[in-house]
Amino acid sequence: MDFKVFDLGICDYKESLRCQKDIFNQVKSGILPSGLIICRHLPVITLGRNSSLRNILVSEEILKENGINVYESERGGDVTYHGPGQLTIYPVFNLNYLKKDIRWFIRKLEQCSIDFLNSFGIKAERRMGLTGVWVGKQKISSIGISIRNWITFHGLTINIKSDDLENFKLIRPCGMDIEMGSLESLAQKEFNMQELKTQIIANFEDQFIFNSKTEALI
Predict the structure, then answer these.
(1) What is the CATH number of the domain that holds 33?
(2) Which of 88, 86, 84 is nearest to 75 (CA)?
(3) Which of 193, 170, 149 is nearest to 8 (CA)?
(4) Measured CA distances, 9 to 162, 184, 200, 216 (Å)
(5) Are 203 and 112 in contact (CB under 8 A)?
(6) What angle do CA 120, 105, 212 make, to 5 degrees?
(7) For the segment 173-189, what is each residue's pLDDT rounded down to a tens digit?
């Protein structure tokens, strides 16, 4: 099965939601087999289905001063931050043609992140009983998904830029007292975002045995 890649560049969170909905409907109707959205978000805090507002540690006024909006989300998990220093990947995959198993799908997403980081010399791993990917004590990739009619949406983030980690201090990421890490802070070098996008697409192709076609939506 093929998937089509949609590169949104840097976009508002609401724009990514509109794109996910459109691609979801195309996959559901059979127009597309599956889609993979790649983007970088303008600063935003999102609240998953299991979120508590207590995990936002600052006032609404401080968030507004920093230009950070807050949105409720259909994804699983607790509170998280999205920013331009991350790669955010939304797979809109039809599991009817893969495997109708939510845990299997989440493990596949984790493996995509692990393989991606390994390709740049960063040894990443899972943690027992937790979702996401870690390097030592630092969490570097977060996952929160939704599934409807066995079609997936929402997805995962991978922290890339070290200068975008500061905003995680405004929240308790995933409802936990944890330290967040990034690819560049761990590798001690900068990376080209287009190179990173190409790599994560290849990791998805490897894990889901797909072929992809990229379309930029900028």
Answers:
(1) 3.30.930.10
(2) 88
(3) 193
(4) 19, 19, 15, 8
(5) yes
(6) 60
(7) 999 999 999 999 999 99
CA distance 33 to 23: 10
Helix (H) or strand (E) holding 92: strand 86-92
Q: Which of 11, 19, 39, 174 is catalytic?
A: 174
pTM over 0.85: yes
Q: How many domains, the chain?
A: 1
Q: Angle, to 10 degrees, between the axis of helix 102-118 and the axis of helix 193-208?
A: 140
* Close Cβ partners of 82 (under 8 Å, ≥ 6 residues apart): 13, 41, 43, 44, 45, 46, 88, 157
Report the Cα–Cα distance between both ends of the chain, in Å, rounded.
Answer: 26
Answer yes or no: 112 catalytic: no
The strand pairing partners of 135, in sequence order, are 138
The residue type found at 172 is R
Range of the domain at 31: 2-216
Phi, psi of 188 (to 5 degrees): 60, 40
Token pair, residue 178, equals 């944890």
Tracing tokens 């379309």 back to the chain, one arrives at 215
Please state, in angstroms and rounded to a whole number, the distance separating the CA atoms of residues 77 and 156.
11
- Please name the residue that has the structure tokens 């690819």: 183
Q: Is the model's pLDDT at 212 over the cut of 90?
A: no
